[in-house]
Design a protein that fits this description.
Blueprint: H1 5-10, E1 18-21, E2 25-29, E3 37-43, H2 58-75, E4 81-83, E5 99-103
The chain binds adenosine monophosphate and zinc ion.
The site of adenosine monophosphate has 12 residues, from loops.
Amino acid sequence: MDDCIFCKIIKKEISGEFLHEDEHSIVIKDLYPKAKTHLLILPKKHIPSVIELEEGDEKIAGHMIKVAKDLAEKLGLKGYKLQINVGKDGGQEVFHLHLHLLSTFA
Ligand code: AMP
Ligand code: ZN
């Protein structure tokens, strides 16, 4: 999507701190961290939110959790939270699906 900030980061049109990239996803640092470690796992496919997940997107959604788990392991985080805000009333501000990885550990 042309006007999506996360699509622009994925396409490297604007800068973002990449911690991981694979065929289906990237991981960036949240620009305004709400925890010691605050990462965002983004699918490369532009899906606005959980509400718009389509048949066949299960793989992408599962992959995001697996990427978070592997990265948390790699970073040695002892514990963490995974969060998805869904819709404006669910606290979502950026309408490109993303999984927050939050940890009090760094
Ligand atoms: P949400 O409220 O779930 O939509 O979360 C959006 C998150 O994106 C917030 O935690 C913001 O701090 C973060 N954010 C907004 N713009 C950027 C950006 N350019 N790079 C990295 N994170 C961003
Ligand atoms: Zn997008």
